[in-house]
Amino acid sequence: MDQMNRQAAGTTVLEMRDGDDFVCPNCGCEIMLKHHGDPAKMQNMRPFTCCCGTPMQPEHPERA
């Protein structure tokens, strides 16, 4: 299972779990998700954006 899955409507759903690491491919900045909030309250969840403006990517996508 990928951290980014496709829904039937063609939109992308981002699956995040506590402890997931994200890294910026541009500047190498890293973040770790300590606690994932309530998915029902985050219906427009998108990938994290680095302070340099680049979308962050999962550091270990195979871990999903």
User: In whole angstroms, how far apart are the ends?
Assistant: 6 Å
SSE run: EEEEE
Shape: globular
- How many beta-strand elements? 5
Secondary-structure class: mainly beta
List segments where confidence is low: pLDDT < 50 over at least 5 consecutive residues. 1-9
**Largest sheet: number of strands, sense, barrel closure:** 3 strands, antiparallel
The helix fraction, in percent, is under 10%
- Beta content comes to 15-25%
Note down, in words, how this protein is organized:
It is a single chain. It is built from no helices and five strands. The strands form two sheets. The protein has a three-stranded antiparallel sheet with strand order 4-3-5, with no helix packed on it. The chain is mainly beta and 64 residues long. It is globular and about 30 Å long. The protein is 0% helix and 22% strand. A hairpin with a 5-residue loop joins strand 1 and strand 2.
What tags apply to this protein structure?
two-stranded antiparallel sheet, disordered N terminus, 64 residues, 5 strands, single chain, three-stranded antiparallel β-sheet, mainly beta
Which SSEs are present, and which pair or pack?
Layout: E1 4-6, E2 12-14, E3 21-23, E4 30-32, E5 57-58
Antiparallel strand pairs: 1-2, 3-4, 3-5
In brief, what are we looking at here?
The chain has no helices and five strands. The protein is mainly β and 64 residues long.
